[in-house]
Amino acid sequence: DAKTTQPPSMDCAEGRAANLPCNHSTISGNEYVYWYRQIHSQGPQYIIHGLKNNETNEMASLIITEDRKSSTLILPHATLRDTAVYYCIVRVVVTGGGNKLTFGTGTQLKVEL
Amino acid sequence: DTAVSQTPKYLVTQMGNDKSIKCEQNLGHDTMYWYKQDSKKFLKIMFSYNNKELIINETVPNRFSPKSPDKAHLNLHINSLELGDSAVYFCASSQGHGNTGELFFGEGSRLTVL
Questions:
Q1: Using a CB-CB distance cutoff of 8 angstroms, which residues of chain B are in contact with residue A96?
Q2: By the CB < 8 Å criterion, does A51 face chain B?
């Protein structure tokens, strides 16, 4: 599995963009980058994923570098409810079905007034 | 309607007891998972079932026995509980592989072994 490296914590002012970086220098060509978050005491929640191109959905944007060795999750207008641990994960497809997601330590994002 | 539901949400028990956690998903997915989150917040996969067949078993002690009676259910039975089994156990489901691979997680079952 390709490993990921994230800063342990980040702060962001409410209303500002939160940019969460992730390094995955050993990623292979067919592995996707996924982002999940875990709000305190809840189950992890899917945010977005991508392979090569930048992606955007109603929650966030994902910017992947051309060499695919790093990516950035962008929350365009962070709110207090975005305070959570954000996990950057490289997806491994298991033969026979299913996707093994290996969660690292993530980044604790704290959004403040 | 809850997509992935787990019961019980909280479980407190003594060492040596046997306990079960149940999981059900109403998303029509064919793959289900059990993850364990320990006190240090590391989230690790334990098992995965696809169409009732075991496809991932991550070196979990054989005191843990998952059972999938059908695609919508994946239960976790734990024998001879130990202190180190205290954790939050999350069930999840996905629609196989070859698509987005998005996992939908339940709210977790907090197991405390005394």
A1: 50, 53, 55
A2: no
Dist. CA A79–CA A73, nearest whole Å: 15
Q: What are the residues whose beta carbons fall under 8 Å from the beta carbon of B62, sequence distance 6 or more? A: none
Measure Cα distances from B11 to A36, A41, B4, B66, B82 in Å. 26, 15, 18, 17, 14
The rounded distance, in Å, linking the Cα atoms of B52 and A63 is 37
Which residue from A minimizes the CA distance to B89?
A: A43
pLDDT, tens digit (0-9, with 9 covering 90-100), for B38-86: 988 888 999 988 888 888 888 789 999 999 999 999 999 999 999 999 9
- pLDDT (tens digit, 9 = 90+) per residue, A55-75? 999 999 999 999 999 999 999
B38 in A contact zone (CB under 8 Å): no
**Facing residue for A43 by CB, picked from B31, B102, B107:** B107
The single-letter code of the amino acid at B1 is D
What's the Rg (C-alpha) of chain B? Answer: 13
Q: What amino acid occupies position A93?
A: V
* CA-angle at B46, arms to B55 and B95, nearest 5°: 50
* Inter-chain touch A98–B90, beta carbons under 8 Å: no
